[in-house]
Structures are given as C-alpha cells and as structure tokens.
Write a structure and sequence with these properties.
Layout lengths: L13 E4 L6 E4 L3 E9 L2 E8 L2 E6 L3 E15 L4 E5 L3 E4 L4 E17 L1
Antiparallel strand pairs: 1-3, 2-5, 3-4, 4-9, 5-9, 6-7, 6-8, 6-9
Length: 113
C-alpha cells in the first residue's frame, strides 16, 4: 500500500445514505460518501448531498473543502455561513445547527474523532 492517496471517488466504494428522519427539516437529502481512509479515528474522503436541510451536531473535528455546489451551515443561536466551490472551513467539536444544501454539494473532508 502506498503512503500517497489521491482523494477521488474512484479511490473508494460509494456509500449512499440519508440523514435520520427525525433530523430532516426540509427536502429528501441523499448523501453519497466515498471514504478513502479510515484509520484510528481519522477519516478522509469525498461526500456529496442532494438538496435538503437537516440538523447537525459535531463531536469531532472536521476540515472541509467545497468542490461543487452551494450550502448554508447555520449555528444554533449564531451565524449562518454560505459555502460554495473553493471555500475551506473547519467545524469544531460542539457545533450544533443545520446544514442546508441549496445546490447539490460535493466536498472533500478530513475528520478527526
């Protein structure tokens, strides 16, 4: 196994899922995830979602870079952030709010649990 890993959908088998029904606030979002690396609390890959809005709650660190589409991430009692292709951001443990996909959104991510 190489120590170099390119993050592309071809690097992993896609997993298709939906957020838990009780978390969905609008639409019928469908998530496709290509997990390229899962090791000792570290996860990396590509995630894509169709339009919809759902509740989110983070216990982990997540770095994201939006590759395509447009979403709004809103923190409970705080600011809403629109993210689009080219934007990078970090979500810290303890973040609670909503994720709304306006246009099908694809991101690459690195999660540390």
């Amino acid at each position: 196994m190489s120590a170099f890993l390119r993050l592309t959908p071809a690097a992993a088998t896609p997993e298709v899922a939906r957020p838990a029904a009780e978390k969905v606030l609008a639409g019928d979002p469908v998530h496709t995830t290509w997990n390229a690396e899962e090791r000792g609390g570290l996860y990396a890959g590509i995630w894509e979602s169709t339009p919809g809005k759902w509740r989110i709650s983070y216990d982990e660190w997540e770095y994201c870079r939006i590759l395509a589409g447009r979403s709004v991430i809103a923190e409970d009692g705080g600011e809403a952030f629109e993210v689009a292709a080219g934007d990078s951001f970090l979500i810290r443990p303890g973040f609670k709010g909503t994720w709304e996909v306006i246009e099908t959104t694809r991101k690459d991510y690195v999660i540390l649990v």
